[in-house]
Design a protein that fits this description.
This is 5-bromo-4-chloroindolyl phosphate hydrolysis family protein. It holds the Pfam family Halogen_Hydrol. This protein is mostly helical. Helix content is about 75%, strand content about 0%. Helix 3 runs antiparallel to helix 4 and helix 8 runs antiparallel to helix 9. The protein starts with about 35 loop residues before the first helix and ends with a helix.
Length: about 290
């Protein structure tokens, strides 16, 4: 469905309609780009060749096509998981080494293509070259946890579950507001999601903050999701300007409160640091 995009120089734009923060501020460019998407195109020649071959060649080429498509899908997901890993100061390694499996499947798929030509030597060469070149092009998955050496694993697991559930609410909010067909509100929801994710990072860095933030990550975010779903249904039917204004005001209140809570958590962490520094100074003073 076509969407209307507004901006500073669009007809009817006013200063009040513009977001206070550019929607791409603080964003890091994803490595999932042309190279990865091109992997989904490469298997199609083998699909075409499959229907020009004898039955064994048909089966091998179809298997090659399916294997390479699966490899491309795993590679794309592996890069996304690595981006999420790199974005956080404290993070677990991906549970499934998707890029490693993608390299192996790329080699296997090209090996099947070599077998389809009737050559075991070509199959072996293609298998090794495919796996090695894929690994050189896209790298390997993170193989160890990051920044978790002194963190209670039980507490970090609790935080991970809470953040995963909160991310679901944000995804559902974005899906719901997309149904409303209002680009400005979509940008506003994205900005609210960025504010919430700052709280995620703060809680991940100090899992002790989860108790103080649980109501925000659970009750308040669930309420924001429900309000977004109801607004999207109403706005799609009636285009009521008052409902839109009320929802925009709600987003402003939520954004301000989540930002204030995150700042409070950071101040509490700073207070803990000051206490630790003071204790160390007292101990050093007694040792002199």
């Amino acid at each position: 469905m076509a969407q209307r995009f507004g901006g500073k120089f669009s007809p009817g734009a006013t200063a009040g309609d513009l977001p206070e923060v550019h929607p791409y501020d603080g964003k890091i460019r994803s490595r999932v780009g042309f190279r990865v998407n091109f992997l989904f195109l490469l298997p199609f020649p083998f699909l075409i060749s499959a229907f020009r071959a004898e039955p064994l060649g048909l089966a091998l080429n179809l298997a090659c096509f399916a294997t390479l498509m699966l490899a491309a899908w795993l590679t794309r997901d592996g890069l996304r998981a690595e981006d999420a890993y790199n974005e956080r100061r404290i993070s677990k390694r991906p549970a499934i080494p998707r890029k490693l499996f993608g390299s192996a499947l790329t080699g296997l798929g090209l090996g099947l293509a070599g077998l389809a030509d009737g050559s075991l030597l070509n199959a072996g060469i293609f298998t090794v070259l495919g796996a090695v070149l894929h690994s050189l092009s896209f790298g390997i998955d993170p193989l160890k946890d990051k920044g978790m050496e002194e963190i209670d694993r039980f507490q970090s697991d609790r935080v991970e579950r809470a953040v995963r559930e909160a991310e679901k609410y944000l995804d559902e909010m974005r899906a719901a507001i997309a149904r409303a067909g209002d680009r400005k509100l979509e940008v506003r929801v994205d900005r609210f999601a960025d504010t919430v994710r700052k709280m995620f990072r703060t809680v991940e860095e100090d899992p002790r903050d989860l108790t103080a933030a649980r109501k925000f990550l659970g009750v308040y975010l669930l309420g924001a999701r429900d309000a977004t779903v109801k607004f999207a249904d109403i706005h799609a039917r009636t285009r009521d300007p008052q409902a839109r204004a009320d929802y925009a005001a709600l987003l402003d209140d939520l954004d301000a409160n989540f930002a204030a809570k995150t700042e409070t958590l950071l101040l509490d962490n700073r207070t803990d640091l000051d206490v630790e520094i003071e204790v160390l100074r007292e101990r050093l003073a007694r040792e002199q």
